[in-house]
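Need residues for this backbone.
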């Protein structure tokens, strides 16, 4: 490694000591204000069972792993673990790609955790870009303004990265034309990313040149008018900034491990995914089982977590961050970088709870997952799809409840081709209840074709709460006791923000929800439904913040006199939406996003009884007839996210 020199020594030392302590000061950040809180010190108390230690600074693998004489590497340490052991990682950065095959037992699980009061970082990246940025980069010959290249060659890695001080992600450039471009506006030629001669600069990012194996980086400011505070205005010389540049495909591989607890670690620097959980690669019948990620912070590349051939996975109290920077749009990621899901899950009996899933293209896909509890999570800033269960399944139950979903272009979606009829087992499907889906603020869908200083393009309204690609048969959905908010009308003014459509060959129930629209009134378009569809909807409250107060006529009269309403009684004897109402729900404070009901709200005691077998975590608090929306009267505010 080349020696550090000049001011770079101070920058690197400040960063490394602060990162280890988990207390980077704003004055030390030279890139961009962090999008999210940076990882904090663990406050989890020490374990009382047998404990061994690893220290990336003072440890040596020939030691015995005690607190006084710790091991140095995690890979060495995990091979020594036995049931009931705890491996405690001292603060600092471990530059490794770790594989864990440890076998605990149900009574004596194995725990790998950060030392109390310290931040332990597992970094699969190329360490010279973090520790010796001055020696790792050189100006790129014949490059664009602010373009640098690595002083060494690399056969892999370099596709993803982050500013180490703020952990804001880089753009994953797919060609050098884009990386070098002076253009930031959309134009028609960009539809062909390989041949377009103009390109588009997508903000700070990297590209490994496949001809020379040099990693190129460019940290030029973003000059697109209208970005405002979302523009990049930080340091442009990578020699003056510690950077996380992806190296290994995965930072943490859990292969066939059982009864394993991972606690309070920071995982970053992977080329493909921060964490991979899979079966034993040598014994494919040996699946991973009973794995828990608790209090972890995962910085995703293509994804944050990829899981397959796994039984009983829990992700709790954790923060999963994606690869979308403040200046990245849906077009930027989808067409110029390579899109992906933050979580890709396949297996049986998963729980994701009290966590933050943020800042990516798509949120979670679980086509091959049998049994999921997804609750008390913050889902925010996904410029394409949110929750993707896949097409209708024959069996399996998913519970999505008490989450806060914001700034997501298509919150509930499905992919698939030609519809295929499937008989679903009674009681199986998606139960979506007690969620707040607040989509009043839109997403950054794509850059404008001409300069727009207003920045309006940063706030593309969501129009499809329930959406599909390719017209598959949607999953069976039971949607009840939720609060949904849009800024303006849904696609084609479909009823219930599009829950009232796309229900052929499936089952859908939409009861006791609140639908609020800022501009205009929620639509009553049922043309996406046919009388034979197994669809039922009733006792939903609709409201328009601006136009609702001036509505004097019976809003539902035309539909309730229609042949379709009469025909709907074949599936729902009372007729679709017979107990719906147009009324101000009287939230505690719409401005402050407090969606609890005031005592005089027309949503109180306005619902219909939900079948007892449908899960409802707040049923016991809902006295009298069911109240509408996510919160029965007197309920506490929704608490989501990490701790």
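Answer:
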């Amino acid at each position: 490694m080349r020696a550090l020199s000049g001011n770079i020594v101070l920058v690197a030392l400040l960063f490394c000591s602060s990162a280890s302590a988990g207390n980077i000061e704003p004055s030390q950040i030279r890139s961009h204000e962090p999008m999210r809180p940076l990882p904090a010190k663990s406050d989890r108390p020490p374990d009382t069972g047998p404990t061994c230690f690893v220290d990336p600074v003072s440890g040596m693998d020939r030691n015995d792993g005690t607190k006084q004489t710790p091991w140095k590497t995690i890979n060495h340490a995990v091979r020594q673990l036995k049931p009931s052991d705890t491996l405690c990682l001292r603060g600092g950065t471990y530059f490794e790609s770790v594989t864990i095959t440890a076998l605990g037992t149900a009574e004596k699980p194995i725990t790998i955790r950060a030392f109390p009061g310290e931040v332990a970082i597992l970094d699969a990246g190329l360490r010279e870009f973090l520790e010796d940025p001055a020696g790792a980069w050189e100006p790129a010959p014949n490059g664009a303004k602010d373009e640098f290249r690595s002083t060494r060659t690399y056969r892999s890695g370099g596709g993803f990265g982050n500013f180490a001080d703020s952990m804001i992600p880089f753009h994953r450039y797919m060609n050098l034309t884009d990386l070098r471009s002076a253009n930031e506006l959309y134009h028609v030629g960009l539809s062909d990313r390989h041949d377009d001669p103009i390109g588009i600069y997508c903000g700070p990012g990297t590209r490994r040149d496949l001809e020379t194996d040099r990693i190129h980086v460019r940290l030029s400011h973003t000059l697109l008018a209208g970005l405002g505070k979302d523009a990049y205005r930080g340091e442009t010389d990578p020699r003056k900034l510690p950077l996380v540049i992806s190296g290994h495909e995965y930072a943490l591989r859990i292969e066939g491990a059982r009864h394993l607890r991972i606690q309070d670690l920071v995982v970053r620097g992977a080329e493909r995914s921060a964490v991979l959980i899979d079966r034993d690669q040598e014994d494919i019948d040996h699946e991973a089982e009973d794995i828990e990620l608790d209090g972890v912070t995962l910085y995703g590349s293509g994804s944050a977590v990829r899981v397959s051939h796994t039984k009983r996975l829990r992700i709790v109290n954790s923060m999963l961050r994606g690869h979308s920077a403040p200046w990245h749009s849906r077009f930027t990621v989808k067409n110029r970088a390579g899109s992906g899901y933050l979580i890709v899950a396949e297996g049986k009996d998963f729980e994701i709870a009290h966590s933050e899933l943020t800042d990516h293209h798509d949120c979670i896909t679980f086509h091959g997952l049998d049994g999921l509890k997804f609750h008390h999570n913050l889902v925010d800033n996904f410029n394409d799809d949110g929750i993707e269960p896949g097409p209708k399944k024959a069996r399996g139950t998913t519970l999505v409840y008490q989450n806060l979903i914001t700034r997501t272009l298509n919150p509930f979606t499905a992919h698939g081709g030609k519809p295929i009829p499937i008989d679903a087992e009674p009681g199986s499907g998606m139960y979506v209840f007690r969620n707040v889906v607040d989509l009043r603020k839109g997403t950054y869908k794509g850059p404008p074709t001409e300069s727009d200083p207003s920045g309006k393009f940063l706030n593309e309204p969501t129009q499809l709460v329930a959406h599909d690609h390719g017209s598959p048969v949607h999953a069976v959905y039971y949607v009840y006791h939720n609060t949904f908010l849009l800024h303006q009308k849904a696609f084609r003014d479909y009823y219930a923000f599009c829950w009232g459509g796309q229900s052929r060959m499936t089952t859908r129930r939409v009861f006791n929800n609140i639908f609020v629209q800022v501009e205009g009134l929620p639509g009553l378009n049922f043309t996406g439904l046919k009388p034979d569809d197994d669809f039922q909807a009733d006792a939903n409250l609709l409201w328009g913040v601006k136009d609702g107060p001036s509505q004097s006529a019976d809003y539902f009269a035309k539909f309730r006199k229609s042949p379709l309403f009469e025909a709907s009684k074949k599936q729902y004897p009372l007729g679709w939406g017979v107990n719906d109402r147009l009324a101000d729900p009287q939230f505690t404070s719409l401005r402050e996003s407090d969606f609890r009901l005031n005592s005089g709200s027309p949503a109180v005691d306005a619902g219909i009884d939900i079948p007892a077998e449908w899960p409802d975590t707040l049923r016991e608090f809902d006295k009298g007839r069911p109240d509408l929306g996510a919160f029965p009267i007197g309920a506490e505010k929704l608490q989501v996210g990490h701790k």
